[in-house]
């Protein structure tokens, strides 16, 4: 399984104190335009790799931080330990020298912002890379999450204003949810400046290659070739992950 180095990083990261990001691998290429792709990476898929690549190319990002989380906004069980997911994440992006890998102590973007602003130089231009469903959860029309933020806000709108004053969101489409669907969400939320939301066209066949599909196929004894990078596929097979 994953080595002691990763286990020690996970153990040291405090989820109850100030938001923090533990570095796991630093990119060789850096610059002022930073992309952040936060996910459970359960497991990292070819779609994750391609999404980061396309976002970086389309929006001229200098560096992208692939950010796993010690805490999650919605999930409590994964079927795969965090240290293995991080080990697979390192394998998935082994050849991308512009990709950093980190571990976040907190799940929510408003709290991740606080950690990023401490760790990265002033005037770093932050771009969160998300899918349509995640973006809808960020807007949080039903106000399910704001009471769970580490940073205190009077109301949901105040949290959104804080977040979008400090970052831009790159939103990838999914089947049936293109740019018009994103505009529809924005029309419902006046606190989000439209120029802070960018649309990324993403092929539907790649969007369908989800981590849940990989887990399902493993449970059913089916092949996962092509759904995850080859090195990740070998890791999953060698360690018997997602078979139960």
Notes on the protein architecture:
This protein is α/β, with parallel strands linked by helices and 244 residues long. It has one domain (4-238): Rossmann fold (3-Layer(aba) Sandwich), CATH 3.40.50. It has 10 helices and 7 strands. It has helices at 4-12, 46-58, 82-92, 109-119, 132-139, 156-166, 179-187, 204-207, 211-219, 230-238; strands at 21-25, 33-38, 63-69, 99-104, 125-131, 167-172, 197-200. It has a 7-stranded mixed sheet. Strand 2 (33-38), helix 2 (46-58) and strand 3 (63-69) form a beta-alpha-beta unit. Helix 3 runs antiparallel to helix 10 (230-238). The protein is globular.
Mean pLDDT: 92
Give unreliable regions as ranges: none
What is the name of the CATH class?
Alpha Beta
Radius of gyration: 17 Å
**Main sheet makeup:** 7 strands, mixed
Q: CA-to-CA gap between the ends?
A: 17 Å
Q: What portion of residues belong to β-strands?
A: 15-25%
Shape: globular
Work out the helicity level.
Answer: 25-40%
CATH architecture term: 3-Layer(aba) Sandwich
**How is the CATH topology named?**
Rossmann fold
Number of strands: 7
- Write out the CATH superfamily name: HUPs
SSE order, one letter for each helix or strand: HEEHEHEHEHHEHEHHH
Major sheet strand order = 1-4-3-2-5-6-7
């Amino acid at each position: 399984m994953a080595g002691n180095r990763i286990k020690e990083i996970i153990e040291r990261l405090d989820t109850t104190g100030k938001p923090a990001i533990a570095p796991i691998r630093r990119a060789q290429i850096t610059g002022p335009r930073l992309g952040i792709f936060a996910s459970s990476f359960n497991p990292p898929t070819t779609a994750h790799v391609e999404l980061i690549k396309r976002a970086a190319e389309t929006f001229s990002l200098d560096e992208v931080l692939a950010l796993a989380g010690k805490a999650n906004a919605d999930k409590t069980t994964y079927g795969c330990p965090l240290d293995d997911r991080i080990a697979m994440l390192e394998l998935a992006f082994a050849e991308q020298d512009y990709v950093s890998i980190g571990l976040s102590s907190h799940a929510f973007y408003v709290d991740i912002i606080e950690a990023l602003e401490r760790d990265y130089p002033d005037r770093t231009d932050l771009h969160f890379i998300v899918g349509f469903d995640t973006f809808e959860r960020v807007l949080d029309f039903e106000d399910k999450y704001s009471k769970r933020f580490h940073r205190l806000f009077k109301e949901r709108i105040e949290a959104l204003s804080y977040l979008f004053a400090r970052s831009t969101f790159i939103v990838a489409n999914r089947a049936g949810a293109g740019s018009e669907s994103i505009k529809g969400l924005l029309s419902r939320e006046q606190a989000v400046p439209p120029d802070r939301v960018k649309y990324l066209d993403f092929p539907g066949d790649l969007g369908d290659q989800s981590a849940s599909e990989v887990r399902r196929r493993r449970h059913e004894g089916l092949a996962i070739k092509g759904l995850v990078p080859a090195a990740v596929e070998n890791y999953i097979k060698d360690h018997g992950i997602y078979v139960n």
